[in-house]
Write a structure and sequence with these properties.
CATH architecture of the largest domain: 2-Layer Sandwich
Strand content: 15-25%
Structural class: alpha/beta
Order of helices and strands: EHEHEHEEHHEHHEEHHEEEHE
Largest sheet: 5 strands, parallel
Helix content: 40-55%
Shape: globular
Length: 308
């Protein structure tokens, strides 16, 4: 098991948390919070691999927040182990969205194996992009198709980073990966701030991202993503390149030339005015609109406004 797994422990029981910290040190150094509310900022920003929740206190609040998290496609992939008091009557399992559980008296003897197994199981089941830890193509397809099958009205945005390849060639894969992670985090944060529930963000691969939102929110949210991206993109470049406002790199034919700084092109499709039966249909329209954005100088957002 890799030792860089992010594990969060939520409990007011100091003896319990210290025991888990000691037992789990071969997996990672876990972060400890007193309750779910105090842990939320970290969970939203870092999306940990495993959450160990002590439900002995504030159980109703903790379970409600946990269920809200697990129902979100972004955080549904997070493995959860619930620790119940020995005398606690466990509710119906559909009322608490945990992946595993332990009684308090079994923690010292069982927690390490349960944590290890939960991490392995989550990696087997959940399909995520290993770089950004956002859901990948299979999950993206299911998200869109499920909404179509239910008859939901929604919008899909396709975001593509322009001039990423020259940047990657100029600065190397490590610097390129960091840029992709920052853009993925930017999109996730802005989308979730605009629509905390019912939205979805996925990473198609490379420099392409997908997000799904309410139709009335997605265009304004996309423009905010564009604005934040334009403000932060200069931080990706060295001072010399920032002074010239361009970089020297290699194009797809192998020729050297100057490239502008990265921009972002976003295309939006929705099913308010026309019907789609298959995820690929609405995805194709979003891709088409993204192509129109790419024909605009600089970063741009284009939303499909056709009625048929």
């Amino acid at each position: 098991m890799r030792a860089n797994r992010q594990i969060v422990i939520i409990s007011r029981d100091i003896i319990l948390t210290r025991a888990i910290e000691k037992i789990s040190r071969d997996l990672t150094s876990p972060l400890v919070f007193r309750d779910m509310k105090s842990a939320l900022d970290f969970i939203y920003n870092c999306n940990p691999h495993l959450l160990v929740l002590d439900v002995a206190e504030d159980r109703d609040v903790n379970i409600r927040i946990l269920n809200d998290l697990k129902e979100d496609p972004i955080y549904g992939q997070m493995a959860v182990i619930a620790i119940f008091p020995d005398d606690f009557e466990i509710p119906q399992w559909e009322d608490i969205l945990t992946d595993d559980y332990l009684r308090r008296s079994s923690v010292e003897s069982e927690i390490f194996r349960r944590m290890e197994l939960s991490l392995i199981r989550s990696e087997r089941i959940v399909e995520i992009n290993p770089l950004t830890r956002l859901p990948g193509n299979i999950t993206i397809m299911r998200q869109i198709q499920d909404r179509l099958d239910r008859g939901d009205k929604f919008a899909v945005a396709y975001a593509d980073i322009d001039y990423f390849k020259p940047f990657n060639d100029r600065y190397g894969f490590s610097r390129g990966d960091e840029a992709l992670k920052m853009v993925g985090r930017l999109i996730l944060n802005v989308v979730k701030e605009s629509q905390p529930k019912g939205s979805f963000v996925g990473h198609v691969g490379g420099d392409d991202f997908i997000y799904v939102m309410d139709i009335d929110l997605i265009e304004e949210t996309s423009n905010r993503i564009l604005d934040y991206f334009n403000k932060m993109v200069g931080t990706f470049y060295d001072a010399e390149d920032k002074a010239q406002k361009c970089i020297d790199s290699v194009d797809r034919t192998g020729a050297r030339r100057n490239f502008p700084f990265m921009t972002i092109s976003i295309g939006i499709a929705h099913n308010r005015c026309r019907d789609f039966d298959h995820y690929s249909e609405i995805g194709q329209v979003a891709s088409e609109m993204k192509g129109f954005s790419k024909n605009t100088e600089g970063s741009a957002v284009k939303m499909d406004r056709r009625k048929t």
